[in-house]
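Problem: given the chain below (214 residues), write out its structure.
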Amino acid sequence: MQIEVKICGISEPTGLDAALECDATYVGFVFFPPSPRAVTTEIAYELAKASEGRTKRVGLMVNPTDFEISEIITKVPLDIIQLHGSETPERTSEIRRKFGLPIIKAIPIATADDLNSSLKWGTSAGMLLFDAKPPSKPDSLPGGNAISFDWSLLANQKLSNSWMLSGGLTQDNVKEAIRLTGANAVDVSSGVESSRGVKDPDMIRAFIRAARNS
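Solution.
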């Protein structure tokens, strides 16, 4: 099975072109203004239209209201919503029902207890995304902090949900991360950037090659 790869935080055509050239399974657009990777709906529309039919387009949101979701999905053609805040299973199910799009739900991981708590999600999200728990600092973001968690927590786990591995992945460690966790899907943002928020096309290509040659 080919490893699925998600390039998150796409904000300009150069990064998008590199992801599409290498057949990235997903590309992510961030609708969270504090993030250096945040895009407006106008920019996201152009990027989403350019990638139509070539990849799955994911809109990352953090604790969005119904109004905010509606504003985004009526202006940007998305295939999936990614929830990266403190949304509950109930809220996640509600969003999926109201807006009719599949959901990826980010789960912050630091300990085995965090992983065990993911069981409560059941089928409320189509896919879980295991990301490193953000550091306790004022400027920390919900994701994209270039840190990883203990991958051995996922070793030999038999999880009922589809899931994706994220957090601190780079072209240099993604092969080992896949080996240790058994992940069939990986997500990267900061690990393919030349500076914070700036995607590097060569790093995107190298990451996808490394993930799929693992």
